[in-house]
Specification:
Blueprint (H helix, E strand, L loop, with lengths): L8 H8 L7 E6 L7 E7 L2 E7 L9 H13 L17 E3 L2 E7 L11 H17 L16 H15 L3 H11 L9 E4 L8 E4 L2 E5 L6 E4 H12 L10 H14 L4 H28 L12 H11 L3 H4 L3
Antiparallel strand pairs: 1-2, 2-3, 3-5, 4-5, 6-9, 7-8
Helix pairs in contact: 3-6, 3-7, 4-5, 4-8, 5-8, 5-9, 6-8, 8-9
The structure holds adenosine-5'-triphosphate (ATP) and L-homoserine.
GO biological process, one term: threonine biosynthetic process
Enzyme class: transferase
Pathway: Amino-acid biosynthesis; L-threonine biosynthesis; L-threonine from L-aspartate: step 4/5
Amino acid sequence: MAVYTQVSAEALAGLLSGYDLGDALSFKGIAEGVQNSNYLLETSRGRFILTLYEHLVDHAALPWFLALTTHFADAGLPVPRPVRDRQGEALQTLLGRPAAIIEFVSGVSVSTPTPAQAQAAGAALGRLHGSAPGFGKARENDLGQPHWPAMAARCLEGAAAIDPQLPALIEAGLRATRDWPAGLPTTEVHTDLFPDNVLMLGDTVTGLIDFYFAATDLVAYDYAVTHAAWCFSADGRDHDPALASALAAGHAGTRGLSADEIAALPQLGVGAALRFTLTRTHDWLNTPADALVTRKDPMAFARRLAWYLKATPNMVLGR
Ligand SMILES: Nc1ncnc2c1ncn2[C@@H]1O[C@H](COP(=O)(O)OP(=O)(O)OP(=O)(O)O)[C@@H](O)[C@H]1O
Ligand SMILES: N[C@@H](CCO)C(=O)O
Protein backbone atom coordinates (compact mmCIF):
# COMPACT_ATOMS: atom_id res chain seq x y z
CA MET A 1 0.00 0.00 0.00
CA ALA A 2 1.02 3.55 -0.53
CA VAL A 3 -2.03 5.67 -0.84
CA TYR A 4 -2.29 7.40 2.49
CA THR A 5 -4.18 10.39 1.13
CA GLN A 6 -7.25 9.86 -1.06
CA VAL A 7 -7.49 12.44 -3.84
CA SER A 8 -11.01 13.12 -5.13
CA ALA A 9 -11.77 13.87 -8.79
CA GLU A 10 -12.62 17.45 -7.74
CA ALA A 11 -9.30 17.96 -5.94
CA LEU A 12 -7.44 16.53 -8.95
CA ALA A 13 -9.30 18.80 -11.36
CA GLY A 14 -8.44 21.81 -9.15
CA LEU A 15 -4.77 20.87 -9.25
CA LEU A 16 -4.73 20.28 -13.01
CA SER A 17 -6.36 23.64 -13.66
CA GLY A 18 -2.97 25.24 -12.88
CA TYR A 19 -1.16 23.19 -15.53
CA ASP A 20 -1.16 22.83 -19.30
CA LEU A 21 -1.69 19.09 -19.05
CA GLY A 22 -5.26 18.82 -20.29
CA ASP A 23 -7.96 16.92 -18.40
CA ALA A 24 -7.60 13.69 -16.45
CA LEU A 25 -8.46 10.58 -18.46
CA SER A 26 -7.63 8.11 -15.70
CA PHE A 27 -6.28 8.23 -12.17
CA LYS A 28 -5.25 5.25 -10.02
CA GLY A 29 -3.40 4.73 -6.75
CA ILE A 30 -0.07 2.86 -6.92
CA ALA A 31 0.46 0.08 -4.38
CA GLU A 32 4.30 0.09 -4.31
CA GLY A 33 6.36 2.36 -2.08
CA VAL A 34 5.93 3.17 1.57
CA GLN A 35 7.00 6.78 1.97
CA ASN A 36 4.50 8.75 -0.09
CA SER A 37 1.08 8.52 -1.72
CA ASN A 38 1.58 7.90 -5.45
CA TYR A 39 -1.00 7.97 -8.24
CA LEU A 40 -0.71 7.12 -11.91
CA LEU A 41 -2.36 9.96 -13.81
CA GLU A 42 -3.22 9.92 -17.49
CA THR A 43 -4.28 13.15 -19.17
CA SER A 44 -4.81 14.12 -22.78
CA ARG A 45 -1.09 15.16 -22.77
CA GLY A 46 0.40 11.89 -21.50
CA ARG A 47 1.10 9.85 -18.37
CA PHE A 48 2.37 11.25 -15.09
CA ILE A 49 2.93 10.32 -11.47
CA LEU A 50 1.20 12.44 -8.85
CA THR A 51 3.03 12.22 -5.53
CA LEU A 52 1.68 13.57 -2.26
CA TYR A 53 4.53 13.81 0.23
CA GLU A 54 3.62 12.26 3.56
CA HIS A 55 5.36 12.91 6.87
CA LEU A 56 8.21 10.42 6.18
CA VAL A 57 9.85 12.78 3.71
CA ASP A 58 11.70 15.94 4.78
CA HIS A 59 9.20 18.58 3.56
CA ALA A 60 11.67 21.44 3.96
CA ALA A 61 14.00 19.74 1.47
CA LEU A 62 11.36 19.16 -1.23
CA PRO A 63 12.36 22.21 -3.33
CA TRP A 64 15.96 20.90 -3.22
CA PHE A 65 14.94 17.33 -4.25
CA LEU A 66 12.85 18.65 -7.14
CA ALA A 67 15.61 21.02 -8.27
CA LEU A 68 18.16 18.17 -8.14
CA THR A 69 16.05 15.80 -10.25
CA THR A 70 15.36 18.63 -12.70
CA HIS A 71 19.14 19.17 -12.92
CA PHE A 72 19.69 15.49 -13.74
CA ALA A 73 16.86 15.46 -16.31
CA ASP A 74 18.36 18.60 -17.92
CA ALA A 75 21.71 16.78 -18.10
CA GLY A 76 20.02 14.03 -20.14
CA LEU A 77 20.04 11.38 -17.42
CA PRO A 78 17.17 8.90 -17.12
CA VAL A 79 15.60 10.78 -14.20
CA PRO A 80 11.88 11.62 -14.49
CA ARG A 81 11.36 15.37 -14.65
CA PRO A 82 9.08 17.23 -12.22
CA VAL A 83 6.42 19.05 -14.29
CA ARG A 84 6.04 22.81 -13.74
CA ASP A 85 2.67 24.53 -13.62
CA ARG A 86 1.88 27.70 -15.61
CA GLN A 87 3.65 29.80 -12.95
CA GLY A 88 6.82 27.70 -13.33
CA GLU A 89 6.29 25.89 -10.01
CA ALA A 90 6.81 22.14 -9.58
CA LEU A 91 5.95 22.00 -5.87
CA GLN A 92 2.23 22.27 -5.06
CA THR A 93 -0.04 21.88 -2.07
CA LEU A 94 -2.89 19.40 -2.35
CA LEU A 95 -5.22 18.45 0.49
CA GLY A 96 -2.85 20.09 2.94
CA ARG A 97 0.17 18.12 1.74
CA PRO A 98 3.07 19.06 -0.50
CA ALA A 99 2.59 17.43 -3.90
CA ALA A 100 4.23 17.25 -7.33
CA ILE A 101 3.44 15.90 -10.76
CA ILE A 102 6.38 13.96 -12.23
CA GLU A 103 6.85 12.61 -15.75
CA PHE A 104 5.99 8.93 -16.04
CA VAL A 105 8.69 6.61 -17.34
CA SER A 106 8.11 3.06 -18.60
CA GLY A 107 10.05 0.31 -16.93
CA VAL A 108 9.94 -2.14 -14.04
CA SER A 109 12.25 -2.58 -11.10
CA VAL A 110 13.96 -5.97 -10.97
CA SER A 111 14.04 -7.97 -7.76
CA THR A 112 16.91 -10.32 -8.68
CA PRO A 113 19.23 -8.38 -11.00
CA THR A 114 21.42 -10.06 -13.61
CA PRO A 115 25.04 -8.95 -14.15
CA ALA A 116 23.96 -7.07 -17.30
CA GLN A 117 21.37 -5.16 -15.27
CA ALA A 118 23.89 -4.46 -12.48
CA GLN A 119 26.30 -3.13 -15.11
CA ALA A 120 23.62 -0.82 -16.50
CA ALA A 121 22.81 0.40 -12.98
CA GLY A 122 26.53 1.01 -12.30
CA ALA A 123 26.80 3.02 -15.51
CA ALA A 124 23.73 5.11 -14.61
CA LEU A 125 25.12 5.69 -11.11
CA GLY A 126 28.43 6.85 -12.60
CA ARG A 127 26.55 9.31 -14.83
CA LEU A 128 24.76 10.70 -11.77
CA HIS A 129 28.13 11.08 -10.02
CA GLY A 130 29.56 12.81 -13.06
CA SER A 131 26.65 15.26 -13.47
CA ALA A 132 25.94 16.14 -9.83
CA PRO A 133 28.86 18.56 -9.26
CA GLY A 134 27.23 21.01 -11.70
CA PHE A 135 24.22 21.34 -9.37
CA GLY A 136 26.08 23.38 -6.78
CA LYS A 137 23.62 23.34 -3.85
CA ALA A 138 24.55 21.17 -0.89
CA ARG A 139 22.27 19.33 1.55
CA GLU A 140 23.49 17.60 4.69
CA ASN A 141 22.93 13.84 4.84
CA ASP A 142 20.88 13.50 8.01
CA LEU A 143 21.31 9.72 7.84
CA GLY A 144 25.07 10.01 7.27
CA GLN A 145 28.06 8.88 9.34
CA PRO A 146 27.99 11.68 11.98
CA HIS A 147 24.42 10.60 12.88
CA TRP A 148 24.98 6.84 13.29
CA PRO A 149 25.92 6.84 17.02
CA ALA A 150 22.71 8.73 17.91
CA MET A 151 20.62 6.53 15.60
CA ALA A 152 22.13 3.45 17.27
CA ALA A 153 21.46 4.80 20.74
CA ARG A 154 17.75 5.03 19.87
CA CYS A 155 17.41 1.37 18.87
CA LEU A 156 20.22 -0.69 20.45
CA GLU A 157 18.16 -1.61 23.48
CA GLY A 158 15.42 -3.30 21.49
CA ALA A 159 17.73 -4.83 18.88
CA ALA A 160 18.42 -8.08 20.76
CA ALA A 161 14.72 -8.95 20.58
CA ILE A 162 15.00 -8.97 16.78
CA ASP A 163 18.14 -11.14 16.75
CA PRO A 164 20.60 -11.89 19.57
CA GLN A 165 23.54 -11.03 17.26
CA LEU A 166 22.16 -7.68 16.14
CA PRO A 167 23.44 -5.43 19.00
CA ALA A 168 27.03 -6.72 18.65
CA LEU A 169 26.97 -6.20 14.88
CA ILE A 170 25.70 -2.62 15.31
CA GLU A 171 28.45 -1.95 17.89
CA ALA A 172 31.08 -3.42 15.54
CA GLY A 173 29.77 -1.22 12.72
CA LEU A 174 29.99 1.89 14.92
CA ARG A 175 33.58 1.06 15.92
CA ALA A 176 34.63 0.46 12.32
CA THR A 177 33.15 3.75 11.07
CA ARG A 178 34.29 6.05 13.89
CA ASP A 179 37.28 7.24 11.83
CA TRP A 180 35.64 8.12 8.53
CA PRO A 181 37.65 8.77 5.37
CA ALA A 182 38.55 12.43 4.95
CA GLY A 183 39.47 14.06 1.68
CA LEU A 184 37.53 11.83 -0.72
CA PRO A 185 35.34 13.60 -3.31
CA THR A 186 31.82 14.59 -2.24
CA THR A 187 28.88 15.64 -4.35
CA GLU A 188 25.10 15.31 -4.43
CA VAL A 189 24.39 11.57 -4.26
CA HIS A 190 21.30 9.33 -4.22
CA THR A 191 22.17 7.29 -1.07
CA ASP A 192 19.31 4.80 -1.65
CA LEU A 193 19.78 3.38 -5.16
CA PHE A 194 18.27 -0.03 -4.45
CA PRO A 195 16.96 -2.11 -7.37
CA ASP A 196 13.43 -0.93 -6.50
CA ASN A 197 14.52 2.63 -7.29
CA VAL A 198 15.79 1.76 -10.77
CA LEU A 199 13.21 1.27 -13.52
CA MET A 200 14.46 -0.92 -16.38
CA LEU A 201 13.33 -2.30 -19.71
CA GLY A 202 15.38 -5.44 -20.25
CA ASP A 203 18.98 -4.42 -19.56
CA THR A 204 18.37 -0.70 -20.12
CA VAL A 205 17.87 1.77 -17.28
CA THR A 206 14.83 3.91 -18.07
CA GLY A 207 14.36 5.71 -14.75
CA LEU A 208 16.24 6.48 -11.55
CA ILE A 209 13.61 7.42 -8.98
CA ASP A 210 13.04 8.18 -5.32
CA PHE A 211 15.66 10.84 -4.62
CA TYR A 212 14.10 11.66 -1.24
CA PHE A 213 17.22 10.60 0.70
CA ALA A 214 19.58 12.40 -1.70
CA ALA A 215 22.21 14.53 0.00
CA THR A 216 25.76 15.77 -0.26
CA ASP A 217 28.09 12.96 0.75
CA LEU A 218 31.06 10.88 -0.44
CA VAL A 219 30.73 9.60 -4.00
CA ALA A 220 32.37 6.33 -2.93
CA TYR A 221 29.87 5.98 -0.04
CA ASP A 222 27.05 6.18 -2.60
CA TYR A 223 28.85 3.50 -4.62
CA ALA A 224 29.07 1.36 -1.45
CA VAL A 225 25.32 1.81 -0.80
CA THR A 226 24.58 0.64 -4.34
CA HIS A 227 26.96 -2.30 -3.98
CA ALA A 228 25.25 -3.30 -0.71
CA ALA A 229 21.82 -3.04 -2.34
CA TRP A 230 22.60 -4.90 -5.59
CA CYS A 231 25.32 -7.47 -4.96
CA PHE A 232 24.02 -9.76 -2.19
CA SER A 233 21.29 -12.34 -1.84
CA ALA A 234 18.15 -10.79 -0.35
CA ASP A 235 18.91 -12.19 3.11
CA GLY A 236 22.47 -10.80 2.98
CA ARG A 237 24.10 -14.22 3.46
CA ASP A 238 25.78 -14.45 0.04
CA HIS A 239 27.83 -11.90 -1.85
CA ASP A 240 27.73 -12.30 -5.64
CA PRO A 241 31.11 -11.43 -7.24
CA ALA A 242 29.62 -11.50 -10.75
CA LEU A 243 27.13 -8.75 -9.81
CA ALA A 244 29.88 -6.82 -8.01
CA SER A 245 32.27 -6.88 -10.96
CA ALA A 246 29.45 -5.93 -13.35
CA LEU A 247 28.43 -2.96 -11.16
CA ALA A 248 32.08 -1.86 -10.99
CA ALA A 249 32.55 -2.21 -14.77
CA GLY A 250 29.44 -0.12 -15.43
CA HIS A 251 30.55 2.64 -13.04
CA ALA A 252 34.14 2.56 -14.38
CA GLY A 253 32.79 3.32 -17.85
CA THR A 254 31.04 6.54 -16.80
CA ARG A 255 32.83 7.89 -13.72
CA GLY A 256 34.95 5.27 -11.99
CA LEU A 257 36.58 5.29 -8.56
CA SER A 258 40.07 6.56 -7.72
CA ALA A 259 42.66 4.37 -5.95
CA ASP A 260 41.88 6.16 -2.65
CA GLU A 261 38.14 5.61 -3.09
CA ILE A 262 38.69 1.93 -3.87
CA ALA A 263 40.90 1.51 -0.81
CA ALA A 264 38.09 2.91 1.38
CA LEU A 265 35.34 0.66 -0.03
CA PRO A 266 35.26 -1.99 2.73
CA GLN A 267 34.86 0.66 5.44
CA LEU A 268 32.33 2.59 3.37
CA GLY A 269 30.45 -0.68 2.88
CA VAL A 270 30.33 -1.20 6.65
CA GLY A 271 28.86 2.30 6.88
CA ALA A 272 26.31 1.68 4.15
CA ALA A 273 25.22 -1.61 5.74
CA LEU A 274 25.08 0.06 9.17
CA ARG A 275 22.84 2.88 7.87
CA PHE A 276 20.22 0.41 6.60
CA THR A 277 20.61 -1.88 9.62
CA LEU A 278 19.88 1.10 11.88
CA THR A 279 16.91 2.50 9.97
CA ARG A 280 15.41 -0.98 9.56
CA THR A 281 15.92 -1.76 13.26
CA HIS A 282 14.28 1.53 14.20
CA ASP A 283 11.36 0.90 11.83
CA TRP A 284 11.01 -2.71 13.01
CA LEU A 285 10.74 -1.64 16.63
CA ASN A 286 8.33 1.19 15.84
CA THR A 287 6.00 -0.44 13.28
CA PRO A 288 3.29 -2.71 14.67
CA ALA A 289 3.62 -6.28 13.33
CA ASP A 290 0.08 -6.04 11.91
CA ALA A 291 0.65 -2.71 10.12
CA LEU A 292 -0.17 -2.58 6.41
CA VAL A 293 3.45 -1.72 5.65
CA THR A 294 5.78 -4.74 5.53
CA ARG A 295 8.73 -4.35 7.88
CA LYS A 296 12.16 -4.86 6.28
CA ASP A 297 14.53 -7.31 7.97
CA PRO A 298 17.47 -5.52 9.68
CA MET A 299 19.50 -8.76 9.74
CA ALA A 300 19.67 -8.76 5.93
CA PHE A 301 21.93 -5.69 6.26
CA ALA A 302 23.61 -6.69 9.53
CA ARG A 303 24.91 -9.80 7.67
CA ARG A 304 26.23 -7.56 4.89
CA LEU A 305 27.89 -5.45 7.59
CA ALA A 306 29.69 -8.57 8.86
CA TRP A 307 30.84 -9.33 5.30
CA TYR A 308 32.29 -5.82 4.78
CA LEU A 309 34.15 -6.02 8.10
CA LYS A 310 36.23 -8.84 6.60
CA ALA A 311 36.27 -7.70 2.97
CA THR A 312 39.17 -6.37 0.88
CA PRO A 313 38.70 -3.64 -1.76
CA ASN A 314 39.06 -6.25 -4.50
CA MET A 315 36.27 -8.35 -2.99
CA VAL A 316 33.92 -5.33 -3.10
CA LEU A 317 34.85 -4.90 -6.76
CA GLY A 318 34.10 -8.59 -7.42
CA ARG A 319 37.73 -9.40 -8.31
N1 LIG B 1 8.32 8.67 -12.58
C1 LIG B 1 7.80 7.45 -12.51
N2 LIG B 1 7.43 6.78 -13.60
C2 LIG B 1 6.88 5.54 -13.52
N3 LIG B 1 6.64 4.91 -12.37
C3 LIG B 1 7.00 5.52 -11.22
C4 LIG B 1 7.60 6.82 -11.23
N4 LIG B 1 7.82 7.17 -9.94
C5 LIG B 1 7.38 6.16 -9.19
N5 LIG B 1 6.88 5.16 -9.95
C6 LIG B 1 6.25 3.92 -9.49
O1 LIG B 1 5.71 4.14 -8.22
C7 LIG B 1 6.24 3.22 -7.27
C8 LIG B 1 6.42 3.91 -5.95
O2 LIG B 1 7.33 4.99 -6.09
P1 LIG B 1 8.45 5.27 -5.02
O3 LIG B 1 9.39 4.12 -4.92
O4 LIG B 1 9.01 6.61 -5.32
O5 LIG B 1 7.55 5.28 -3.71
P2 LIG B 1 7.77 6.00 -2.36
O6 LIG B 1 6.63 5.64 -1.49
O7 LIG B 1 7.98 7.47 -2.63
O8 LIG B 1 9.16 5.50 -1.83
P3 LIG B 1 9.75 4.16 -1.18
O9 LIG B 1 10.16 3.24 -2.30
O10 LIG B 1 10.94 4.68 -0.43
O11 LIG B 1 8.74 3.59 -0.30
C9 LIG B 1 7.54 2.72 -7.90
O12 LIG B 1 7.84 1.42 -7.52
C10 LIG B 1 7.23 2.80 -9.38
O13 LIG B 1 6.58 1.60 -9.77
N1 LIG C 1 15.97 1.20 0.75
C1 LIG C 1 15.79 1.23 2.19
C2 LIG C 1 14.55 1.94 2.59
C3 LIG C 1 14.66 3.42 2.39
O1 LIG C 1 15.70 3.96 3.13
C4 LIG C 1 15.78 -0.20 2.75
O2 LIG C 1 15.65 -1.14 1.97
O3 LIG C 1 15.93 -0.35 3.96
